[in-house]
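Sorry, can you check?
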Amino acid sequence: MFPVAKTTLFRPLAAALFTAALLAPTAHAASNAGEALSRIEADGYVATHELALRHGLWTASATTPDGKLISVILDPANDTVTPVSRDAFGTTLPTAQAAKDALQLAGYRNIRDIEFDDGFWEAEARKLNGEKVDLVLHPVTLEVLSEVGEYTASNSTAGGTRLTASEVRAALEAAGYRAIRDLDFDDGVWEADATNPANRRVELKIDPVSGQVLREKLDD
């Protein structure tokens, strides 16, 4: 966990980075692990590993041309690769205090255990109705990418009905996955191993209500 340090530098800079990313030209967005790997290496990063699709973003560990090991995030919506390193807090990346401030502005209370892990800010908090939730925030914009709360057997915190195993399999097959196995509901999400459209073996985490793939990681 990183110490909480107040900063205001990141706000205009983060906004500028985000705007630039949205306006950046893109020839082809990375839609699978193979394309994501190629896109990251095209920016000069090497020895890329632990590539995974998390919260709609590709994440990986990689080495910069000058030999620095960092995390990188690839947004498939605009094909932009963002380097994420510890020495960027307070400059190109917001601090833990900034993440806490953003959550408070969004209406969360009793915010604690803020930490930076695998390229994202994570925290525990309570909503205004008192429900305890685990949160994941975008490292630059501080947008809440995931909110996981207490889960019942039939409904998610969003109020939707949980998909059955057969419905999850059907959703994966419709998305181009095949050879689906080890389908299991664990810790509030569906998990499975499968072969993705790029013919790579991957480990998946699936939204229990929408059937959307939340995370795709190459199966080592």
